[in-house]
Automatic annotation (TrEMBL):
Record's keyword terms, sorted: NAD, Oxidoreductase
D-isomer specific 2-hydroxyacid dehydrogenase catalytic domain mapped to chain residues: 11-311
Protein name: D-glycerate dehydrogenase
EC number(s) recorded for this UniProt protein: 1.1.1.-
Alphabetized GO MF terms: oxidoreductase activity
Lineage, opening ranks: Bacteria, Pseudomonadati, Pseudomonadota, Gammaproteobacteria, Lysobacterales
Origin superkingdom: Bacteria
Ranges for domain D-isomer specific 2-hydroxyacid dehydrogenase NAD-binding: 111-289
Protein family according to the UniProt entry: Belongs to the D-isomer specific 2-hydroxyacid dehydrogenase family.
Signal peptide: none
One Pfam family per UniProt: 2-Hacid_dh_C
Length: 332
């Protein structure tokens, strides 16, 4: 009997969801949350036919060097800036991600984070826990309205559109900017108007970042962009930390040139820029926008489907549901 393919699961995920991998493969699973060294990943991947990884695992040329058997990398997450797609494609390795299943949950969280920042919820809770309620006054902790305000969405993919749909229930005006303009029917369904980048910033009451991270979007929200926002505006980031220049953001907050910020992602996560922790008017969460139990399970299930199919097994053998570089020549 020929040897079964070997796959690596880089982080502890839901064991019962992963169990399907065992029907087809020899599975080697990491038991603790781990930041693997590139050399360790390389040593593992040289023995593997496939791997299921998360955003904790950068996979590029260094990690796949000499990994002759490796044919598939399934990323648990819609964003895949942890993968060097050019290097994977050049090596004939099929990469996949987990879109769609997290759209609504992530949009819920983005909307909630924007509201929490606008209404100063974290600051209010810290104030309460510090025992300061005795000094409550009528003008304590006043926030900005969300209903009826102008929502500005930068990046109008599936999650951006889902946030726009939520905004209609709050009577908001939604503006968006995107690499390309959406079809009129989608704009109408989301009740969203396309504007240029500068106009988006200038008119925003609440700016929400939902765009992919790339060299082009690195520090797109820098001091110059922040200066275009109005001083009462809020900034919410559920995309990737590297899109925002965090020092420029702290400068803007410290000089009252920005109303508030809600951040779920950070440039050096899990390490935080210490200046962010000093800001009063920020809500900080640890990259949990897709983190409902049902959604995280669905993400792992989709990654499992992708890996099984990419390695030529299951009902969709050879046709994984959500490939990233589907056009590559399979070297198998
Ligand atoms: C995930 C995310 O938690 O999907 C994404 O792009 O950032 C999050 O939903 C993360 O990718 C897990 O690997």
């Amino acid at each position: 009997m020929s040897e079964r393919p070997r796959v690596w699961v880089s982080q502890p995920l839901f064991a019962d969801v992963l169990a399907r991998l065992g029907e087809h493969f020899e599975v080697e699973a990491t038991r603790e949350v781990t930041r693997h060294e590139p050399a360790a990943v390389n040593a593992i991947l040289r023995r593997m036919d496939g791997a299921l990884v998360t955003l904790n695992d950068p996979i590029g040329a260094e990690q796949i060097a000499g990994a002759q058997r490796l044919r598939a990398i399934a990323n648990v997450g819609v964003g895949y800036n942890n993968l060097d797609i050019a290097a994977l494609s050049a090596a004939g390795i099929l990469a996949s991600n987990t879109p769609d299943v997290l759209t609504e949950t992530t949009a819920d969280f983005g909307f909630a984070l924007m509201m929490a920042a606008a209404r100063r919820m974290s600051e209010a809770e810290r104030w309460l826990r510090d025992g300061q309620w005795q000094r409550w006054s009528f003008d304590s902790l006043l926030g900005a309205d969300v209903h009826g305000a102008t929502l500005a969405i930068l990046g109008m993919g599936r999650i951006g559109q889902a946030i726009a749909r939520r905004a209609t229930g709050f009577g908001m005006r939604t503006l968006y900017h995107n690499r390309s303009r959406l079809p009129a029917a989608v704009e109408a369904e989301c009740k969203a108007q396309y504007v240029g980048f500068d106009e988006l910033l200038a008119r925003a009451d609440h700016l929400v970042l939902v765009l992919p991270y790339s060299p082009q979007s690195h520090h797109l929200i820098d001091a110059a962009a922040l200066a275009k926002l109005r001083p009462h505006a809020t900034l919410t980031n559920i995309a990737r930390g590297g899109i925002v220049d965090e020092d420029a953001l702290c400068d803007a907050l410290e000089h009252d040139r920005l109303g508030a910020a809600g951040l779920d992602v950070y440039e050096g996560e899990p390490r935080l820029n210490p200046r962010l922790l000093q800001q009063r008017r920020v809500v900080l969460t640890p990259h949990i926008a897709s983190g409902s139990l049902a959604t995280r399970r669905a993400m792992v299930a989709l990654a499992v489907d992708n890996l099984i199919a990419a390695l030529g097994f299951g009902p969709r053998a050879g046709d994984p549901p959500s490939p990233i570089n589907g056009g590559i020549r399979d070297r198998g």
